[in-house]
Amino acid sequence: MNIQIISDEKKPLLNRREISAKIGFDNKTPSRANIKKEIAKKLNVKEDLVVVKLVNPDYGTTSAVLEIDVYDNEKTMKDVASDYLAKRGVPKGKKGESESAPAAPAPAETPKKEEKPEEKKEDAPKEEKKEEAKEEKK
């Protein structure tokens, strides 16, 4: 896997670098976790501060276009980066995530509605009235 950096732009107000890169690979598109590792090695930064925003493979080739943010510190990353993007590419069990997904709570039993006898009594006279109206028309 070889990574070629196309642009590296510093954003001082956001305390990050926005990087556009092109990646070449052999068989299948590498995972976000592998891309984070390679970028961290190439730029000499902590892997935890790298956020892979976009991996866009070129159709029919073994290359992809990348958009990456590299933050100066974790506090800024938590404040600025989207939570779902920051968590992407993080192996399970790392950063306080559990190995297995939390179990969904059992659904509470809904109480059955009891039919009120009063409602049935009200329906009965209506039916009788309809029958009486039919007889009168005849």
Q: Can you walk through the features of this model?
A:
The protein is α+β, with helices and mostly antiparallel strands and 138 residues long. It has a domain at 2-87: Alpha-Beta Plaits (2-Layer Sandwich), CATH 3.30.70.330. The protein has four helices and four strands, in the order ββαββααα. It has helices spanning 32-43, 74-80, 83-87, 117-137, and strands at residues 2-11, 16-24, 50-57, 63-71. The protein has a four-stranded antiparallel beta sheet. It is elongated.
CATH superfamily of the domain at 2-87: RRM (RNA recognition motif) domain
The total beta strand count reads: 4
Rg is 31 Å
What is the average per-residue confidence, as pLDDT, rounded to a whole number?
78
Strand content: 25-35%
Q: Any low-confidence stretches, pLDDT <50, length ≥5?
A: 96-101
Order of helices and strands: EEHEEHHH
Tell me the name of the CATH class of the domain at 2-87.
Alpha Beta
- Helical segment tally? 4
CATH topology-level name of the domain at 2-87: Alpha-Beta Plaits
Widest beta sheet: strand line-up: 1-2-4-3
Distance between the termini: 90 Å
Largest sheet: 4 strands, antiparallel
SS class: alpha+beta
Give the overall shape: elongated
Describe the structure using short key phrases.
138 residues, alpha+beta, Alpha-Beta Plaits, 4 helices, 4 strands
